[in-house]
Design brief:
Cytochrome Bc1 Complex, Chain D, domain 2; 12 helices; disordered N terminus
Amino acid sequence: MTATRLLHMAATAVVAATLAMGGAMAGWNESGGEQEEALTLKPDLENGLEVYEVCAACHMPEGWGMEDGTFPQLAGQHKNVLIKQLADIRALNRDNPTMYPFALPKSIGGAQAIADVAAYIAKLPMNPQPGVGPGTDLALGEKLYKENCVRCHAENGEGIDEKYYPRIQGQHYKYLVRQFEWIRDGKRRNANPDMVKQIQGFSDKDMQAVMDYVSRLKPPDKILAPVGWENPDFD
């Protein structure tokens, strides 16, 4: 059995034990801990690259993830959002047994490493050709998005960094659907409770339509990579 597999099994056991004891369920965005510390630190992009080398095995050197939705695109995501999500995974407020062992301080470092890698990822240009949905019900998707999602994720899916609302434009369709479903069905413990309430009544058809629409929202040209771009930091 490989060391990676052993780490994965151990992390799964830790998450299961935490849930069995009532979980480490903090509020959606309570202050304190590594998140608050990392937000105050000046990032070191050189160290951020070194830390990201651990992440690149799954999220790819460009930070573009996988079109099949296994791993999300991280490139171009807001720094505060990245810090929050990484801190939540480390604190077991968000369940991610696959990522957990690679996100631990012994693997990447402490709060400074969180600040460094978040800043590095945030500056990576985004994939100009993310995975999109089937395009069969975009009118419904647009209607649902404008009625339910704009307040937090903004008109074009750009999110709001200072409020920890993620950029969802340019994200892979299959990843968007999986996360939406988990949030709707109560499987993502660090989800914003306002979003949980907002989307509780969405059918699977609604979910697929709105995420299909979102997957086609284009980030600004200034943060998009050229087609075929490769991260020169990994040459």
